[in-house]
Amino acid sequence: MRKAFKYRLYPTQPQRRDLDKTLMLCRQLYNAALQERRDAYKKAGRTVGFYEQKRYLPEIRAELPEYKHIHSQVLQNVIERVDLAFKGFFRRVKAGQKAGYPRFKGKGRYDSFTFPQAGTTGVKLQEGGKRVLLHGIGSVKVKLHRPLEGKIKTATVKREGEHWYIIFITEVDPKPLPPSEEAIGIDLGTNPHFLVTSEGEMVEAPRYFQKAQAKLATAQRSLARKKRGSNRRRQARRRVARLHRKIANQRKDFHHKLARRLVNRYGTIVHEDLNILALSRSYVAKGIHDAGWAQFLAILAYKAEEAGRRVIKVDPKYTSQDCPVCGHREKKPLWVRAYTCPQCGTLLHRDVAAAQNILAKAWTGPSGETLRAFPQGNTPRSPGL
């Protein structure tokens, strides 16, 4: 399987200028390749393909000396990105979705370049992993905060705000965890709990964005008052970007740690198959973006796959309306968090009941037939409050 390892780079000032110049030249090549495809179709009705554009790269390097310092495979990857953008466009057109024609990349909108065969050429680790040699840039200090595993396949140098990172994609052998018969259902929320399990555990929502709103508002007001193009405006913009980056990093760290804890303990994890894109455009959008459901579920899925665990998606319909003990269905407003089932008299906490219903759906078919028995200790039960 393939795995990504992301490390912080610490380039010197001359190296920063070379990295910025490389991004600028890659962006110009991307826009030129995009313009060529647009003009060829508009003027001659002809489609220009990936291999045709790639054949012109030696001529570009011969006529424009600045491109000689960039690795040839990095330039090929730029052409490949244009090709992938058009393939995505045609795929969406064919599927009847919103197409989104490929756009030109403005200044500051092209933030990475890739060495497709970093294991053999273009990138080399030095001094026991303390530095990395990048073609056209030089020997750059790198912080390997965790060991690099597996065989290196690609390496991407990326700019995030004021910081530079290198992302290695490696081939590693799977490391499955010991088998576990334990199963858990999880119900995602935004406030006050990020996650509630079918066993009654409640994980408080950290709400990093909400806690940082006052600082963000101050920084954004300061940015709005600065003159466009001025040095102070650039500094104010960096302050705003730094705050957003900190929030994103805090949220990702929380997601990684919670997903790891679930994967280490449970062999099967069941969650609702939510339409997060639609929910993120509703009246609860702010809370959902702050919670980061999509990122958490993606992290949970790949950690489970690596560990040999199962993650199951189930239909979210009626999970918060059904009694997990007797199956009685009663619609209650969202602000009602605990209630007594009128059919069997069970005292229920709404989120725990929903998590138990989510787990139960993983073992039953659409008609209610039992597909698999519950693992021991995971049958639905009435939770205490």
UniProtKB/TrEMBL annotation:
In the N-terminal section; belongs to the transposase 2 family. GO terms for molecular function: DNA binding; metal ion binding. This is Transposase. InterPro entries: Cas12f1-like_TNB, RNA-guided_DNA_endo/Transpos, Transposase, Transposase_put_HTH. The keyword Zinc applies. Residues 170-280 form the Probable transposase IS891/IS1136/IS1341 domain. Residues 293-358 form the Cas12f1-like TNB domain. Keywords: DNA recombination, DNA-binding, Metal-binding, Transposition, Zinc. The lineage of its organism: Bacteria, Thermotogati, Deinococcota, Deinococci, Thermales. NCBIfam families: guided_TnpB, IS200/IS605 family accessory protein TnpB-like domain.
